[in-house]
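Ticket #4471: complex job returned nothing on first submit. Input attached below:
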Amino acid sequence: AYAKIDTARTQRTGYPEVIYGAGKTAQQIVGIVQAMEKRQQPILVTRVDLEKSAAVQEILPELAYDQTSQTLVRTAHALPAVGNIAIVTAGTSDMRVAEEAAVTAELFGNQVTRVYDVGVAGIHRLFAKLPLIRQANVVIVIAGMEGALTSVVGGLVDRPVIAVPTSVGYGTHLNGLTPLLSMLNSCSAGISVVNIDNGFGAAYNASMINHLVKEEQP
Amino acid sequence: AYAKIDTARTQRTGYPEVIYGAGKTAQQIVGIVQAMEKRQQPILVTRVDLEKSAAVQEILPELAYDQTSQTLVRTAHALPAVGNIAIVTAGTSDMRVAEEAAVTAELFGNQVTRVYDVGVAGIHRLFAKLPLIRQANVVIVIAGMEGALTSVVGGLVDRPVIAVPTSVGYGTHLNGLTPLLSMLNSCSAGISVVNIDNGFGAAYNASMINHLVKEEQP
Amino acid sequence: AYAKIDTARTQRTGYPEVIYGAGKTAQQIVGIVQAMEKRQQPILVTRVDLEKSAAVQEILPELAYDQTSQTLVRTAHALPAVGNIAIVTAGTSDMRVAEEAAVTAELFGNQVTRVYDVGVAGIHRLFAKLPLIRQANVVIVIAGMEGALTSVVGGLVDRPVIAVPTSVGYGTHLNGLTPLLSMLNSCSAGISVVNIDNGFGAAYNASMINHLVKEEQP
Amino acid sequence: AYAKIDTARTQRTGYPEVIYGAGKTAQQIVGIVQAMEKRQQPILVTRVDLEKSAAVQEILPELAYDQTSQTLVRTAHALPAVGNIAIVTAGTSDMRVAEEAAVTAELFGNQVTRVYDVGVAGIHRLFAKLPLIRQANVVIVIAGMEGALTSVVGGLVDRPVIAVPTSVGYGTHLNGLTPLLSMLNSCSAGISVVNIDNGFGAAYNASMINHLVKEEQP
Amino acid sequence: AYAKIDTARTQRTGYPEVIYGAGKTAQQIVGIVQAMEKRQQPILVTRVDLEKSAAVQEILPELAYDQTSQTLVRTAHALPAVGNIAIVTAGTSDMRVAEEAAVTAELFGNQVTRVYDVGVAGIHRLFAKLPLIRQANVVIVIAGMEGALTSVVGGLVDRPVIAVPTSVGYGTHLNGLTPLLSMLNSCSAGISVVNIDNGFGAAYNASMINHLVKEEQP
Amino acid sequence: AYAKIDTARTQRTGYPEVIYGAGKTAQQIVGIVQAMEKRQQPILVTRVDLEKSAAVQEILPELAYDQTSQTLVRTAHALPAVGNIAIVTAGTSDMRVAEEAAVTAELFGNQVTRVYDVGVAGIHRLFAKLPLIRQANVVIVIAGMEGALTSVVGGLVDRPVIAVPTSVGYGTHLNGLTPLLSMLNSCSAGISVVNIDNGFGAAYNASMINHLVKEEQP
Amino acid sequence: AYAKIDTARTQRTGYPEVIYGAGKTAQQIVGIVQAMEKRQQPILVTRVDLEKSAAVQEILPELAYDQTSQTLVRTAHALPAVGNIAIVTAGTSDMRVAEEAAVTAELFGNQVTRVYDVGVAGIHRLFAKLPLIRQANVVIVIAGMEGALTSVVGGLVDRPVIAVPTSVGYGTHLNGLTPLLSMLNSCSAGISVVNIDNGFGAAYNASMINHLVKEEQP
Amino acid sequence: AYAKIDTARTQRTGYPEVIYGAGKTAQQIVGIVQAMEKRQQPILVTRVDLEKSAAVQEILPELAYDQTSQTLVRTAHALPAVGNIAIVTAGTSDMRVAEEAAVTAELFGNQVTRVYDVGVAGIHRLFAKLPLIRQANVVIVIAGMEGALTSVVGGLVDRPVIAVPTSVGYGTHLNGLTPLLSMLNSCSAGISVVNIDNGFGAAYNASMINHLVKEEQP
Ligand SMILES: Nc1ncnc2c1ncn2[C@@H]1O[C@H](COP(=O)(O)O)[C@@H](O)[C@H]1O
Ligand SMILES: Nc1ncnc2c1ncn2[C@@H]1O[C@H](COP(=O)(O)O)[C@@H](O)[C@H]1O
Ligand SMILES: Nc1ncnc2c1ncn2[C@@H]1O[C@H](COP(=O)(O)O)[C@@H](O)[C@H]1O
Ligand SMILES: Nc1ncnc2c1ncn2[C@@H]1O[C@H](COP(=O)(O)O)[C@@H](O)[C@H]1O
Ligand SMILES: [Mg+2]
Ligand SMILES: [Mg+2]
Ligand SMILES: [Mg+2]
Ligand SMILES: [Mg+2]
Ligand SMILES: [Mg+2]
Ligand SMILES: [Mg+2]
Ligand SMILES: [Mg+2]
Ligand SMILES: [Mg+2]
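Support reply: We reran it on our side without changes. The output follows.
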């Protein structure tokens, strides 16, 4: 009787499997990946550091490691990229989270436009990129510090904005609580928020939205 | 030179104007509405209590007051309703926030499916409504207490979920911080979050997403 | 005059001694265990990592180490197992806490039913195990993330539920405060809560409750 | 298919219905009670102030109001009282919460032993009552201030203790967060905790536990 | 011996006396003002509501009340206005704090440029006013919500910025903690922060800075 | 002119110098001690770990290291011990803080009575020691977990109690905030509190109080 | 057997009874006072507002009401005043707490020296009063805002300082948490802290200390 | 069109570039510095530890490393020093932050007066230095613990004070939140605050203010 519920998530073909690598040993990751490999799906492991990735790759050389995003990926059977998701960051130190989002979005079959390092301390950088950002169906804004970039972008684009606070900062930054609170209280409408550093979650949401734009799919 | 930026939000015809009524006097609300009335647009004032609404209506009888959502609305020139947004609540006390979202969504030109009072304490209530919820392009989940409904819905539907924590609760509920934190840490993917009690913001987001589904528009 | 009070806890024969191993040196643990060994009781040391356990076992080889639960145990004189306690977890990363509870409960003379990895992101997993869970006299629910599993289980079973939040998560998870708050505000009745990661405490409570069911004792 | 789940809570005959009266109008309470009255069950409405109770009683004179516990009760069809639950409080200002627990427990078919005003500032008061407390199957400890009574009771009795922090205090009391944190970190084992001021929840839990002691039921 | 220290603040002629009116009775305010009136100085009482101001004015009709800033002022002997302080606000609800700052700054002998309602949700409003803002020696930025305006202004002007978070907001706004944290973590340099709603304090600082620009003084 | 102020603290002969060793290098500690050695005073360095102490002792062998209290001491010229300070702890893990207090108190010329490991989980242990504790002029109570011992002692003795919360605990213990809050809200009168783990501060206070009892001094 | 414990607090003749009036009705206060009046002791009721005091005095005209300290007192049988306690405040708004402390201390048999309104914004005021403060056996420092006065006093006197944070402030003052934290982290030694606004508690402590100075007693 | 905005910050000649070194690899720092070296400007890299500095200096030997301030500096083209900024610290452990401020201020063309280790525990140290401090145009006060020094200085000088809380402390110090809150609530006027440990930010602000004093420039 519950099989129908089951299919809701697990039999939805085409969606890649995503393994949260933090707090798992290399051995555990290998085990989970091997159990999955039968399925005709791309595979993504997030939050894997360099050392752990090497241990996994020794046994599973078909996985590619990307150090910036800290991900292990098997792109075979990846979905064709459709639509457009813009990923906008405030500073260079938001890059790890941004690339986690980008890698996830690409594997989930989305075209990604990267607009990095356009924080409001030098707002002209953002304006120069606005036309590019406005072509996207959905915009992911990633920012540490005070996260003001989110409100500025939200006021300038006409698309849903998914905000990701990052833990980049010190003192009263409170490990990311400050940009999180800032984003939840944005004076611009059209912004929703995910957990601190959750690039994966933002991309998952953005992908769902981007795929609603059916006519742009191949 | 900045006129182009200006148009991004203010010259975008068709979008209703929304006035945040809390902390404004009846007189101030009347003033703002009168300044707007020239434009061919629907008008929405949120967070207006009964007494204040009466004072406004004396001067502006064309505004209709809805006590549940605490809104004043002029529906003239409203957009035709397209697509579908499901609004799901955990308990009856989440109704004010839910109706704020519903009134907003309808005025912004969206069809709304209300699924109220299906909290997880009696989870069969939710399962009975699942087919209905799954027809929506985007789902708004509104919950106080611990907000667990969000995760359960997120795990059962294949559409973006926008979560709204409500301030309904006591003690360690911390005026809504508890469901907010709960929603940000959901074990289900595909969930993004707006501020506590922010029914308007959830509807604004959902409307943007729902309107991306172009072929369903009239 | 206070001897009577004393007996309330210490002369209650049969109850195993439990040592909290965190922050104690191997040497201190050995000392305490040796002072106890005269008594005809099982012995349990919690929160002992692999290295420390090896140092203890060198001197006390009669203690068995279990790496998942991070416990050292001497099962001699263990109580016969009666009744039934169900231990339900949301994810695989809750396992350390779950096994700390399980080892404690078993040593205290309770039958334990393990139902692991049935979090609400895939709720069908829980439903498949419900008949098993419903056979228990008391249910321990262990969850990190947002802890929503607790409310779902609480709404489906008719027995006392003891909830254990775990520190598994990141960002706004706040090292377990989020599921703790969530559990304290559950919309389901019949739930009480212990400290973050306190598998031992949950089992201690559950054992007391399970032993109240006298006719099921041998 | 889900009917079985439904019955888990709603068709369980004999259990009284409980309505949370805070934030409901007298009219809404009357409506809910009238919808229930067909069922052969006792009825309990919690968190009703004097004024609201009078308005309800005008229409439903069969409900009795108790000002200390702020409850409206229809005791017809109440369950026969079995076993024993001790309700222990630190101070007189914890009385509202204690009586909410007592009224709930009695309506759910439990014998209740009230031991009030035995806080640790004058610990001899507690010792004088210990023999009485030890006769209970389960002990509810209710305390504001720093909640130290919980740990002292927990160390002296051999039964499950359910702790209820109250919002009685000022300054760093933080509306009850201080005794809540204190209770969650008790040095005594066998204590679990419910939300601040949640007398109802403690009684619900205690009743479940007390009814497990089958042979003491009539 | 300490007389020298004394003069540092109290014998500095010309500086207006400022009375914090909140929590003082009309009678107490009258008493303090009367004790001061001998001195040849302007007088300022902040945080006085309409009712209290009327009671004070009955006895001291020489004080003028301003309802927006909630201040009572005697402008006799006011210092001549020099230099320029820009006061920039995000929204209309920040007006009370802004006018508290403006009234203070003017009484302390500063020219004030008001630039209100230029929040980043419609950033073109700010750009239109930039030339005006850039003429000031020091800029006060006042914002509720997420306070993003501060960072944008800080990145565009070359003068010290004093930021004032306001308590305007709801939910996770935490009565102004969110914009405070945001301002302390600004990605723009040159920003320092005062307490929530502290318009007086910002003006006091700004006045000190503005008066350092000696050649612009008359 | 300020010399009089100076003497208030620095020329008060007989009081030992105390150096806070945390965050200072061995070299810095040596430098400060050498600058002091001319004065005829005992010397105390707190918060020095084993390794750092060895480096200091190489150059200053006249300092004795105590590993439990993590202190380096030169007892030459120590004050004669007078009166009596009782130091009472809840558990063995509070020992480092307790010994920091004891070493400080002894060096400051106080007799110290140690009453360790008498936490309320087994309250009879405390009662057995009460006559001893009641002989002191002032009582220091040191406790982690929920700090309930403080309230129990406060209710049983007739002397000032100085409470020291310790950082011993986990989860909602919040690194000592829980016992701190508990102690500040004690239902017993006569308790004042110092910072978490501040054994030194408690002893400094207690010594001041103990020395007020003049006739007990030699 | 426990009678001895009992006497520790209740049979200690001479100590006045103190009733915490907040949250008690006039009727309850009357009841408690009447039960006490047989004993030959002074009586003190704290936290009683004007209206409630009038209701109590109608029945018990022998109680005197003091509006500043919000206390009701019967001074008959008061203890003779000995020694000296200095009560030092930062501002005039700390007066209610200061007078609660003063009234308590006087009723408990202590001479009190009031030194009010000497906050550090004008530090010469404090220096002028130092000789007076230094004559006390113990000093109570009461301050709102940032509580800096405590550290300055602590560095200038050679007696135990008991610090009382007050709830006077706004915004980040957090209802007194800011001065509380400030006082707990004072760079001056010899300071211990009681709960926010707890004038009574400070006086209770100070009285205990002041009475240790035996030779100064009559 | 946006070039004009750009110039606001980047074409402002003379202002040194500042690189935030924390979280950047030596390689990344080298890359950024090399890209800058064409410009005729001094270069400053903050928050560089010893090891990282050595790696940078191997490639860029023209950078000088200062271990106290943890900065790498190229002073070529430094601005001539004008005016005067006083940097005042409470304790020796605030030195890293103070020197970060001093190095920044000097590179930005300001004369700096260092007044270190004058905390209020021994307030005579501050008074001895007051004449020196009063010569500055702007005062930076840096303090950990409870930050009381800020209020004392603010009450004694007639210039803008920029306060920097430091993370030096333990327990309830909360990594610097305590002095931050203390500084924001100062009873002295004329104080504004920057983020915890943000010596750079304080110096940037102070430099802006100091340069407003035009006639004192060479
Ligand atoms: N970086 C990430 N952040 C948050 N959630 C993640 C991340 N990576 C994977 N997940 C989620 O974690 C789930 C897998 O968790 P696990 O079973 O512990 O590997 C996936 O289905 C995703 O929903
Ligand atoms: N005082 C109370 N505190 C907490 N929960 C309560 C209380 N009274 C009733 N409840 C719960 O609230 C539910 C009813 O909520 P409602 O439908 O809003 O009346 C009941 O089934 C109980 O589980
Ligand atoms: N363990 C400790 N905890 C708190 N304060 C201490 C401690 N040890 C020393 N102190 C204080 O720190 C001062 C010395 O600080 P410093 O100049 O940094 O060595 C002493 O005068 C004491 O007041
Ligand atoms: N120690 C510091 N604390 C805060 N901000 C800094 C610090 N050092 C540099 N910055 C700022 O950080 C900016 C450079 O950041 P980044 O591009 O990451 O190197 C500079 O323009 C400064 O505004
Ligand atoms: Mg937008
Ligand atoms: Mg989903
Ligand atoms: Mg249940
Ligand atoms: Mg127990
Ligand atoms: Mg700037
Ligand atoms: Mg006592
Ligand atoms: Mg002192
Ligand atoms: Mg000043």
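Chain G touches chain D at residues 2-3, 5-6, 9-10, 22-23, 165, 167, 175-177, 180, 195-198 (CB under 8 Å). Closing as resolved unless it happens again.
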